[in-house]
Structure formats: structure tokens, C-alpha cells
């Protein structure tokens, strides 16, 4: 049985022991998957549950002084991805002021030893933890010996001579290099979620959209894109993908504020409200911009649709999840 948790304190969650991996896991790229896969395999060998520990908000979001830094995926997608990768449990620990003040030794004792009965802990290269990032792998290993577990770091995963990282993926996405992003992720970049009701302005303009919210996070993309939508005929990964053109931004022409992903599916007339879909990004068409009036916006939307249709004729859709 799988389990999710936000607080590792209190009643032990794995009294028989566990194998723990720790990371931000934003995007679940090849490096993350190597770390998780190693922990899952070690858990299988030892006959113990594999538990992935992450934080929400991410530390760099908590410490941001202005606009939140961009995210590759939402917390729910991260948790689902970790479970799909073989983890028995996923902890999205609350990263708040109390967590920032927690000494490294307290984190090891209360979270890893008392909360998860860790037998092995696996981390990525350059791992730091505890108050003021005062803990490193050497300290984790020393504290682990006192608490009954061993600690290990995996080697960095390289692609084209550079380390695979979430920062590198965000840079690729910002540059419109979806091919590189897909190679770093091990799959095409996509955003999934349940379709929500918007203001239905697109429908009145002749461009009905399926809308996904990014729920208080800053997306790594902004603009207009040629996309494939998965999940129209069932769960994502089942049925045929649907060609579409998508806008991801705040909709400045209509004075929008919240980032919204709006996918216009070509020649589709069904009802998608409440359906879980995934939007796979193929190509960047243009930046988001504010138009003087709605007719000017509609004229540009027609051009965007024509370009997206042409591009998608040359690209095979793939199964994606983010």
C-alpha cells in the first residue's frame, strides 16, 4: 500500500525500516530517476519500503524575495511521478520557518531515524541539509552511523558532457529547445491536470479551450505553443492524442492575473470539464502579448492555429507526464 505525508514527525511511518531518497525532484529528470531507481532497487533487495522525501514549497521558492522562481511540475504531479517510479511512500515535507531553523542533527533524528526508521539514505551530488544548509554528505554519514543507517550519494548523471539538472531543463524550455528538454527528462515535457472552468471567452471567440491551472506556482513556460493533448479518450496514455494550440500565461489582453494553460483542440466539440489531461509541448510559436482589441487577438489566434497544424503534421506525439 502506498502512502503520502506532509509531516514526518510523530508516529513512525515505517517501523520495520525503510530506504529513503531525498531531493527537490522538480521535473523528475534523468538524474532524479537514477536516484529514485537506485533507492527502489535497494529497498527491493532489503525487503523494505522505498520512501522519497521532498519539500513543498521548494526551498528556493520559500527564500525567494520577489517573484517565485519557475517550476517544472506541480506538487501533485511530483508525488504521482515518484509513486509511479516505484516508491512506496512520498513525503512532501512542509518547508516553513520551523524547517529552516531545524539543525541537521534534529532532521536526522526526528525525520529519518524516528519518523522513517531509515536503514539506508540516498542523495544526489552536492546534497546539503539542515539549518543554513550546514549539513553535507559527510555529516549525514556520521549522524547516520549514530542512528543506525548508512548514507550514500549517487554519481551525477551526465548528458553531452554536462550534468542533468532542473536548471538546465528550465533554460532549454525558455529557449524553446523542447528536444533537449525531452532528452534531459527522458520524455517530452508536458503539464497535466484536471480541466477547470474558465471565463469561456475562448468559446465566444470561436476558440474553445481546455484550461489547466498552475495553482500558485510560476511556470517554466510562457507564450503560445503547438501541443498534443493526451487523455481525451480516457486516461493520459490511452487513446489518441489530439492536436492543439496552447496559450500559457496571464492573458494580458483581457487583464488576466493567474497563469493559466489554455489548450484549443482542433476540430473537437466534446465536454472535458473535470477530465484529467496532459498537454505535451512541441514547439514555441510566439511570446504572449497584449493586443489592442479582441478582433486583433482573434486574427492572431487564427494564424497561431494554422502554424500549429502545420508543425504538428511533422511531429509524432509521445506519451508524456509532468
Query: What are the segments in which pLDDT stays under 50 over at least 5 consecutive residues?
Result: none
Total beta-strand segments: 16
The pLDDT mean sits at 92
Fraction in beta strands: 25-35%
Number of helices: 10
Strand order of the largest sheet: 1-5-3-2-6-7
Order of helices and strands: EEHEHEHEHHEHEEEHHEHEEEEEEH
User: What does the largest sheet look like?
Assistant: 6 strands, parallel
Task: Give the CA-based shape.
Answer: elongated
* Rg (C-alpha, Å): 21 Å
Oligomer designation: single chain
How far the N terminus sits from the C terminus, by CA atoms, comes to: 23 Å
Helix content: 25-40%
What characteristics describe this protein?
single chain; 322 residues; alpha/beta; six-stranded parallel β-sheet; 10 helices; 16 strands; 31% helix
Give a written overview of the molecule:
- The chain is an alpha/beta fold.
- Helix content is 31%, strand content 25%.
- The protein has ten helices and 16 strands.
- The protein has helices at 30-46, 59-62, 75-84, 97-101, 104-115, 137-147, 166-174, 178-185, 201-204, 294-312; strands spanning 3-5, 18-22, 50-56, 70-71, 89-94, 118-123, 150-153, 158-159, 162-163, 190-194, 210-213, 218-219, 223-230, 242-249, 260-265, 276-286.
- The strands form four sheets. A six-stranded parallel β-sheet has the order 1-5-3-2-6-7, with helices on both faces. Strands 10-16-13-14-15-11 form a six-stranded antiparallel β-sheet. A two-stranded parallel sheet has the order 4-12.
- Strand 8 (158-159) and strand 9 form a beta hairpin.
- Helix 7 (166-174) packs antiparallel against helix 8 (178-185).
- The radius of gyration is 21 Å and the shape is elongated.
- 41% of the residues are buried.
